[in-house]
Amino acid sequence: MGNSESSRSSNPPKDESSTALMVGGAIAGASLVVGAAIAGAGFLAWRAFRAMSDRSHNDETDQENKNVRLIVIILEGANLDQAPQEITWKPPYNGWCKVNSDASLNPGHRAGLGFLIRDEHSNFLAGATFRVELDTISNLELIAAAEGMNRAVELGFQRVWLELDSLTVVECIKKWIEKEWKVSSNTQPVHIQIQMSRIKANVSKLKGWKISHIHREGNEPANFLAHHKQTMGVMEIKANAIPRRLQEAIDSNKRGVPQLRR
């Protein structure tokens, strides 16, 4: 920055076009790194610059300091040091099924749940979408997981992989199954204990069981189902009547298309 100030003191004042080139050059450089995402930010920054330039400035140094601050804001907004993370859904092992579940609290204080079950080929086997009474998001996540596990056992699967996008709930279930928490523990609310006990009862019937966390971007089909039901109650999703958007999300998972998490 010191060299830049020295250069300004020895050179004649820059006109608007040279200053614009400085801002435009910074935007172009950032665009090479972040592509189309920075283009929109660059346009807005240019509009802001034009608005600043339209004002009368007697102090050239003050104007250029503002331009430098504008460039810094543009580059910081681009998050150049934070590359997007690729999130990819993985199918279950051979002979296993995978249950993905999710819950939502929508505007208007409506609560939704959803789960779907897929085989080792990523094919849809069963699913459901719920509209239920308002509850805590943790308990809603537990109910969705318990419903999905119950359906998998009903279908006769002996090896079930449960996956959620709530890391907190995943860790709670792990501790419960591994007996770090006792079913009779008074430290957990009754409604939490009920759902945990449902999950544990189904796990006890299985020959193989696994639970994992996936970021929300990789749990899109379950997220869709958690928001899909508009009226109170439950609606089962049939394999021959899958909503278009759900089918698209399932197909994307099946192809192994990564979703970007920023």
Automatic annotation (TrEMBL):
Annotated TM spans: 20-46
InterPro entries in alphabetical order: RNase_H-like, RNase_H-like_dom_plant, RNaseH-like_sf, RNaseH_domain, RNaseH_sf
Domain RNase H type-1: 109-228
SUPFAM superfamilies membership: Ribonuclease H-like
A GO MF term: RNA-DNA hybrid ribonuclease activity
Classification via CDD domains: RNase_H_like
Pfam families per the UniProt record, alphabetical: RVT_3
Keywords: Membrane, Transmembrane, Transmembrane helix
Protein name (database record): RNase H type-1 domain-containing protein
Classification of source organism: Eukaryota, Viridiplantae, Streptophyta, Embryophyta, Tracheophyta
